[in-house]
Amino acid sequence: MGDIISTVKKSVAGLTGVAVCLLALGVVMGVLMGADKGAFYGDVVGNITNMIKSLGGMGLTGLITACIVLGLLKSAGDNS
Question: What is the pLDDT of residues 43-53, one digit of tens each?
Answer without folding.
Answer: 777 888 888 88
